[in-house]
Amino acid sequence: MAAIPVNFLLERLGTFLVKEAKLLGGIRQEIEKIREELESIKGFLEDADKKRDRNEGIKTWVNQVRRVAYDIEDAIDEFLLRFGTRHAGYGGIMNFLGTLSSAMTQLLPRHNLATRVQEIKKRIVEIAERRRNYDIQMLREDTSPDATIRQWRDYAEANFLEEAEVVGIEKDVKLLVNQLVGGVTGNNKKIYISVVGMGGLGKTTLARKVYNEPKVKKHFNCSAWVSVSQSFNTKTLLKFMLIEFGGIREPSSSKEAEENLLPSREEIEQMDEVELGRKILSYLQGKKFILVLDDVWDETVCIDINSALVENNNGSGIMITTRIESVTSGLETIRSVNFIRHELKTFPDDVAMSLLCRKAFPGSTAIMPPEFQEVGKSMLQKCGGLPLAITTLGGILCKKSTVSEWEKVNQDLSWQLGSITSILKLSYDELPLHLKPCFLYCGLFPEDHLIKRSKLIRLWIAEGFIEERSGATAEEVGEDYMLQLIDRSMLQIAETSMDGRVKSCRIHDLMRDLAISISREEEFSFILDMQVRRANVVSPRRMSVFGENKRIEDDEESVLSGAVGNIQLLRSLLFFRVGYISTPNLISHSGQFMLLRVLDLSDVYIEKLPKQIGHLLHLRYLCFRTHWELTHRNRRPKLPRSIGSLQNLETLDIRDTDIRMLPNEIIRLRNLRHLCMAPWNVDMPKGFSNLRCLQTLTGLDGSRKGIAAEIRELKELRRLDIEGVKKEDAEEIYGSISSMRHLFRLRIEHDDDHDDDYGDADFPFGKRLLESPPPRLQVLELRQLWELPDTLGSFNNLSKLTLTDGPFREDPFPRLESLPCLSDLRLYRLYNVDRLECGPLGFLRLRRLQLVDLTSLRTVTFAEGSMPSLKQLWIHHCGLAKVVPHGIQHLKLEVLSIK
């Protein structure tokens, strides 16, 4: 797909030439000619890409176009890097291009820019001439994104086919639920259910639907979902099981957990397989549990896991999804368990047609219009009854409104023998150009990885895949891109908030295989698996490294640096499950990563960030963390002062690093959009109000004088987390926050060092909070608040509210129940609240209510007609213990948890 780098390059060349920089002599003219030639070639690339698999000559031509586009991009980046190194931080790179002629000979060590441009121009002319030898047509294409952003709330209300609602599995869901809940007549042994079938049949979808059924949630005391995949590790699986079951001590756990001597996450990291197995056995004693092992490829997994599960004869359930029937053969001979095999079949014709209709004609009935039936049946034959193929095909066809367009799709499928691969490949070919690199980038994540919405969008932005549109930020456009990929079944929804917004997504194994295959062929990206250690890509632009959750020694660091032929061309470097690096030689030798835009170390522990990080002047995205053991063994980590040289940095994520203070140089990062800091107070240097592009600021220490004036200047903030707010500063800080017209999410933690007069009449702490709330505020968390704000009932756009650690005594329900958009309410550790009463017609849109550690609570009352939309209710560790709330019979709950 040469169109991706060409399209991206044309935009960069436009910026490069339009800026005030004056490229003297004939160099500017030569670059203009290159741009014009590429514009001409671009018009033929869509047709060439569709024909290249059938013609080796065309395939070679497309590869040549891609390579020359990459070479031009490299030349621009090296030019900017070398010319801007001495001037970083003094007005930006582009402002010094006017002095190009005097610096030209210093820019490129082996060639000056003029010579390189001439060579590239010659190659492009030859490529353009060569095109005439092939039957490549100029196609009109409309690859521009829609002018209007589809907001996430509109998406949530649209009639898209979600994974959990796939046609054809209703009977399977009912059968498996009954087998798990009803057990096997005559005994209470553990129940093993093996869901077997080929890739794309919907095994994971079925298992997730069963796992989330309210009847199943109610029947079992605890539950765990563990994704296994091909590169499993027994220790890692046991660790995830213990965490998923809830057998760990979180930092905010109640005293009950402390008394049970549950291990912390840090302690779990140090355990071996035997210790982990013992902890699981101990925790599950007396509990009826449900465990799902998704995507199992090796039969040893089942044997290893079974040995860690207690033989309590109370009907616990284990569900396994696998493509390989023999994986669970060892369980059939174990007398102490009940074993059930459930084989998924391909869809019959009528169900397949119904599913295709729902995808191709969203919002309509499941009946195919007569004029589409013949071509629809023809394409369904190629799907072979495979749900993934059908939904993917439907995602293509929903953009086609005429029979002739459907016939063209059918024709494109025919020559590829109708395999599932051809259908998935066609779904990629049919993507608009702006979505293709976004989809390929998702292939860098591990199998079954939960991809957070905000992270994925920030990575796309850092790579330059997304441009801001008029009236919308790049983040808003990126969210629209993600929804389009979900709409086309290229990505799957993994998590949503209670108001329907997508929180995270996944990429199906087969779609991921497709992305990896295309990326390897196009030199778009490469995956280095430390367990395999194969490297056969000459010059990928992006690389992700998969480890084994253990320390990387020096020899393995050399494997990383020698993984590809030309590592200097990398734009993205991501690490997953790498354990921690004892001596970060790879990162210290940053001279070999000079063109890097993304460095994601969020899944690898390092001792410190080396000062050489400041050499990566193109860096847009930087994320890292440190290990608790290293932090306590050495001095508290700090960011190097060289961080101030990263003038292009847009995202800095230092959560879980124990960094408590940022260097003064941080205020030079004028392009910083997202600053995500530790979950405790981080002291920002004076003058951080210069960071005018900030949209996200978390972990801010609000106790320092002058904070209110600083944050008042951050007009673009969408999310703010501020902690340690003192009584004397609170009102001024509230005033600054009220002026933030874009603020979407707010978390305020007040200083818990209260004096006796904290709630005095002159300033009742919290009572006058946000007298004029930000107009777009939807998510609010208040901690250590003495009184509820008088104006809280006027927060009309609020969809999620969390109140934590407040000493106030009043029942908060009367103040909150009239909020028109509130869908998620969480009350934690409100120690003096002794009753909660919801009146008729209160909380009309509330879907989730969590009451945790309300130790003085004695009564909860739901009047008839209250909370008509409530689906989930948690009452944990409250004073009323396990007493059923009054009026609970009026609620239409799907999940009820009282303990």
Automatic annotation (TrEMBL):
Keywords, ordered alphabetically: Nucleotide-binding, Plant defense, Repeat
Top-level taxonomic group: Eukaryota
Gene3D superfamilies, alphabetized: 1.20.5.4130, Helical domain of apoptotic protease-activating factors (1.10.8.430), P-loop containing nucleotide triphosphate hydrolases (3.40.50.300), Ribonuclease Inhibitor (3.80.10.10), Winged helix-like DNA-binding domain superfamily/Winged helix DNA-binding domain (1.10.10.10)
Molecular function via GO: ADP binding
Disease resistance protein winged helix domain segment(s): 444-515
Residue stretches making up the NB-ARC domain: 176-363
Domain Disease resistance N-terminal: 6-87
Gene Ontology biological-process annotations: defense response to other organism
InterPro entries linked to this entry: Apaf_helical, Disease_R_plants, LRR_dom_sf, LRR_R13L4/SHOC2-like, NB-ARC, P-loop_NTPase, RX-like_CC, Rx_N
UniProt domain Disease resistance R13L4/SHOC-2-like LRR: residue ranges: 570-884
Protein name: AAA+ ATPase domain-containing protein
Source organism of the structure: Nymphaea colorata (pocket water lily)
